Amino acid sequence: MELNQAYVALASQLQKVMKGLTAEEALSVALGETRLMLVRSGEQVLPKSRAVDNAVKALSSLAPDDVSQVEQGGAALRLVRAGERVLPKSRTFDTAVKAVNSLSPDDIGLIEQRGAALKLVRTTERVLPKSKALDAALRVLNGLTPDEVEMVERKAASLKLVRPHGKVVYPINHVEIAEEVSRLEPESAIIKYLDSDDRLKPADLRKIASELGIVVPASMKATGDMETYIARNLMAYGMSSE
Fold this sequence. Notes:
α9 (174-182) crosses α11, α10 (187-196) runs antiparallel to α12 and α11 (202-211) packs parallel to α12. The protein folds into 5 domains: 1-38; 47-77, no CATH class; 89-127, no CATH class; 128-161, no CATH class; 174-241, no CATH class. The protein is built from 12 helices and no strands. By secondary structure, it is mainly alpha-helical. It is rod-shaped. The longest helix is centred in the N-terminal third of the chain and has 19 residues, at 2-20. The mean pLDDT is 84.
């Protein structure tokens, strides 16, 4: 009985649908070009196309959680062209997208040809052009001790260009040299120490002598004579003090 009533209701609804068809649509149904199908509540009819087929295929492959996100508005189907990709939304990816959007066509061409790449650069880092000079500087930096690095950072030391056959010349500390000389003996050791430092000019030797309490005669100009004079006077002073 219930089945008969269902058939009657269906026939009645089918009759209404047929009456609502245009003559062209009715002919299309009669010729088998189109057909009537059951459309449930919550379903809709869409034109047949590759785009719709693609969308249906995408929906059919979704996990239950993904379907739930779509229904709750937490996700949506978007058109993704060939050559595009879907990335998770985050500050990191936003930064990457911003970096890509700021690139010039030449820069993008370099990346595509693998002549360049996007890399993570921390706020304490910088990007410099690749060169032999930079490689040499980096080798020097990598060879520094922690104390030397700290000196460079507080500007107590710096990197300088030294040409072939050149050398690094440190500032002369007359007080330190005088203290070192005062601990040397005999006379020949003092002369050798002073003579080995080719930075020392007559003016420097006079300052060192002054730190030692020795007055070098104004007429004495040669460095060798001054070194000998300082050594002899220092040894004589040491012997007399004993």
